[in-house]
TrEMBL record:
Family, as annotated: Belongs to the sirtuin family. Class I subfamily.
Residue spans of biased composition, Basic and acidic residues class: 383-407
Organism field: Hyaloscypha bicolor E
Catalytic residues identified in the record: H161
GO MF, one annotated term: transferase activity
Record protein name field: DHS-like NAD/FAD-binding domain-containing protein
């Protein structure tokens, strides 16, 4: 039996980025290298797969959402950028501890407005165009902000770590929309709701500049929560799963569970069921086997891997890159700052290669991808990719796979 794949943050040091090919250290050089990467013939080292060897799969991370106003987990030196003492909540802690859940939901309640207002940025729309041009067939993302599916609903996206747009009940596994939950939280926590209204009025949530937002007293992390030192988290209340409240289930060992609520409907700690959690894979939680397999399937059906805005700090993402490397897929990395174990992805490249076998660029995706798309359009290479009918057919198959796996 395979080991479950757990989401664990990596806190080790990251190597300094080593630009490949060497002239990819300017915007012009970087665009040329990526253009070569995307348009090169399939690698002679590519192992047989079932997909199209000319297709690219993108693996994205928090770095591509920075331009949407969401902070990155890590700075360029590998430290937590937003708040050095920030530590994400762990799954076991969330399940076991009512106080930890209050703190989580209080921060999430305040952070949701900001996340909800944030929108996909030029990187997401450049990816959409790369999909329309036939270069990119699939996206695997570690991001939980839903920006990929908003920006390019027709380009299949596999959300490796789930999504914040819904909650899931840990007892009955039914989903609930995050928007509806936000209204329940506001109703149960009027003082917090008033604070949030003030924060919105002060403009702390209006700016997309993390420094300005911080200056106005608010910090947001990529999982959509806000950090407020000294806030009375123990006063925060959250509701149970409405289904488990109405029909308390019988547990696996035949015991009748109970869902207790206070006079206004907030979950009480005497309950034995009905805890809602965000539909994200929390740190310390295992990725569902069907999602892990779907991600591997996407890698095995592609000819090259383009890694965008991630240091591959989580093992679940890093091992997909390793799988691609082991399949002989050329790897491109566009990320500001070091990437976990990146030397291993490029160690056997010829110095003379111009991007066809591998690319490493130490820049932000929003500075490069829109211009890359323009250059590819000018070169007219899209027609050649678009005209192959087998691509369209395969795209539709891939789309079904990704969506089925996640439904
Ligand atoms: Zn439930």
């Amino acid at each position: 039996m395979q080991r479950p794949l757990m989401r664990i943050p990596y806190t080790g040091p990251l190597p300094p980025p080593n630009t490949i090919p060497r002239n990819a250290n300017t915007i012009t050089g970087a665009i040329a290298a990526l253009s070569t990467f995307l348009t090169a013939p399939p690698s002679p080292f590519l192992q047989d797969g079932f997909g199209d060897p000319t297709s690219t799969v993108i693996l994205s991370g928090a770095g591509i959402s920075v331009a949407s106003g969401l902070a990155d987990y890590r700075g360029t030196k590998g430290t937590y950028r937003v708040n050095k003492t920030y530590r994400p909540i762990y799954y076991h802690e969330f399940l076991a501890n009512h106080e930890a859940r209050k703190r989580y939901w209080a921060r999430s309640f305040l952070g949701w407005t900001n996340l909800h207002k944030a929108k996909p940025n030029v990187t997401h729309y450049a990816i959409k165009t790369l999909g329309q041009m036939g270069f990119v067939r699939n996206v695997i993302t570690q991001n939980v902000d839903s920006f990929h599916s908003i920006a390019h609903p027709d380009l299949p996206t596999l959300e490796l770590h789930g999504f914040l747009r819904a909650l899931i009940c840990v007892t009955c596994h039914r989903e609930l929309a995050r928007d509806d939950f936000q209204e329940s939280l506001a109703r149960l926590n009027p003082v917090w709701a008033a604070f949030l209204t003030d924060a919105v009025a002060s403009g702390a949530l209006d700016t997309e500049n993390p420094d300005e937002r911080r200056a106005r007293g608010m910090k947001t992390n990529p999982d959509g929560d806000v950090d407020l030192p000294g806030a009375p988290y123990h006063t925060f209340r959250y509701p149970p799963c409405p289904h488990c409240l109405a029909n308390p289930p019988i547990s696996g060992d035949g015991v009748q569970s109970k869902v207790d609520i206070d006079h206004e409907g907030a979950w009480k700690s005497t309950s034995t069921a009905g805890i809602l959690k965000p539909s994200v894979v929390m740190f310390g939680e295992s990725i569902a086997p069907r999602v892990k397999e779907a991600a591997e399937h996407v890698i095995d059906g592609s000819g090259r891997l383009l890694i965008l805005g991630t240091s591959l700090a989580t093992y679940s993402a890093w091992r997909l890159a390793r799988r691609a490397k082991e399949r002989g897929m050329p790897i491109g990395i566009l990320n500001l700052g070091g990437v976990r174990g990146e030397d291993a992805f490029f160690q056997d490249l010829l110095v003379s290669q111009q991007g066809e076998s591998g690319v490493r660029i130490d820049m932000g995706t929003d500075k490069i991808l829109p211009d890359l798309v323009d250059q590819l359009k000018r070169n007219g290479v899209s027609d050649q990719h678009r005209s192959d009918p087998s691509h369209a057919e395969e795209r539709s198959i891939n789309s079904r796979i990704s969506k089925d796996m996640l439904s």
